[in-house]
Amino acid sequence: LQTGLPQTGLVVARHGANLAVENDHGQVFHCVSRRHIGDPVCGDRVSWTPTDAGMGLVTALEPRQSLLSRPDGTGRNKPLAANLTQVAIVVAPEPPPAGDLIDQYLITAEHIGVRALLLCNKSDLLADAPAQLLLERLSLYRRIGYPLLQVSARDPGGLEPLREVLRGELSMLVGQSGVGKSSITQALLPDQEVRIGQLSQATGRGRHTTSTASCYRLPDGGHLIDSPGVRSFRLPPLSQTALEQGFREFRPHLGQCRFADCHHGVEPDCAIRAAIESGEITSERWEAFQRLIHRL
Ligand code: GDP
Ligand code: ZN
Q1: Containing domain of residue 151, as a range?
Q2: pTM
Q3: Which residue ranges have their beta carbon within 6 Å of ligand 1?
Q4: CA geometry: angle at 248 spanning 244 and 251, to 5°?
Q5: Which of 26, 115, 127, 170 qualifies as a FRET site for 67, CA 20 to 30 Å off?
Q6: 153 and 245 share one domain
Q7: Nearest C-alpha to atom 25 of ligand 1 is from which residue?
Q8: Structure letter (DSSP) for residue 83
Q9: Beta carbons within 8 Å of 285's beta carbon, 6+ residues apart
Q10: 144 CA distance to ligand 2 middle (Å)
């Protein structure tokens, strides 16, 4: 490799100023970043220049197509993952999805302009009666346009439809603890241990540090970001307009209520409630909206 020729790459791990940068051929380089280039995270595209065998200097951060971030508690947003093209919301019959978590993930995906799909894991448990309720609930989301896949991490052969969906994309699995995100990741990446070792070596971070995100190259092409930062996910503060836009099936009806600032609760001539009457919006999603708007 000739020293000095600038190239582009993908940030696959970060530890402070140390970045693991992957080139188009899947080779990972240990890079340090110039101080004023911003706050690169997994999924970022960067310009970098090789400095020595396998090492490099990151000189610029490319513009982002999307950015997932979360409030850091001081009123600022901490970036978690850049350039995601899709978010797979993992749910399972056990533990069942808590509260409005699915809606919150969907709102976030809509807000940052990233496609979302639902991934129902532990399909081996779907025969139980309570699981049928979950499937009914998930079919509501499918009806408003979110793809739904059923998989079992315990049946790697059955993961083919998921591999198909992940191919060529930059994806992230989100969902509450215990639904099987790590199991699915391991099933998709049989040599994950090796990859984790490579990344921690490239960034100089401890092998068992799990506090930062990693971006894994999938065998069939595409990448999967695994971020502990989303495990404690909460909906960031949003305006009412952003919240409304986050319910994709509400959009054709927005701006048609009698009152411009309608909360779609008890106000007269509300287009959203009219859409519930006509069956275009489910009362489940309306109830989720009501709970979330009162938390704004
Ligand atoms: P995470 O917290 O979302 O990463 O979940 P884990 O991957 O750690 O999985 C939580 C538990 O669910 C573990 O005990 C897994 O063995 C189990 N599990 C994962 N996938 C499946 C599945 O498809 N079927 C069943 N029955 N159990 C699963
Ligand atoms: Zn209204």
Answers
A1: 67-230
A2: 0.91
A3: 121-122, 124-125, 152-154, 175, 177-183
A4: 65
A5: 26
A6: no
A7: 122
A8: S
A9: 103, 140, 144, 247, 249
A10: 19
Same domain as 99, residue 26? no
CA atoms of 180 and 217, how far apart (whole Å): 19
What distance in angstroms lies between residue 150's CA and the mean position of ligand 2's atoms? 35
Between CA 148 and CA 18 the distance in angstroms is 38
Quote the ligand 1 centre to 271 CA distance (angstroms).
42
Kindly give the number of the ligand 1 atom that is closest to the alpha carbon of 121. 23
C-alpha of residue 106 to centroid of ligand 2, in Å = 21
Query: Is residue 85 within 8 Å of 112, Cβ to Cβ?
Result: no
Task: State the Cα–Cα distance between residues 262 and 195, nearest whole angstrom.
Answer: 51
Q: Which ligand is nearest to the CA of 293?
A: 2
Contacts (Cβ under 8 Å, ≥6 apart) of 153: 121, 122, 159, 180, 183, 184, 186, 187
Cα–Cα nearest to 179, from 208, 161, 153, 215: 153
Give the pair of three-digit tokens for residue 140. 């509501």
pLDDT of 113 reads: 95
Mutate to test the pocket of ligand 1, among 90, 183, 227, 232 (most ligand atoms within 8 A of CB): 183
CA of 43 to the centre of ligand 1 (A): 26
Alpha carbons 30 and 198: distance in angstroms, whole number: 10
| Residues 177 and 120 grouped into a single domain | yes
Domain end call among 45, 61, 77: 61
Q: Which atom of ligand 1 is nearest to the CA of 185?
A: 7
| Shared-domain flag, residues 49 and 86 | no
Comparing 213 with 62, the larger pLDDT belongs to 62
Q: Which of 28-42, 47-61, 72-86, 189-203 has the lowest mean pLDDT?
A: 189-203
- 155-185 confidence digits (pLDDT tens): 988 999 999 999 999 999 999 989 999 899 9
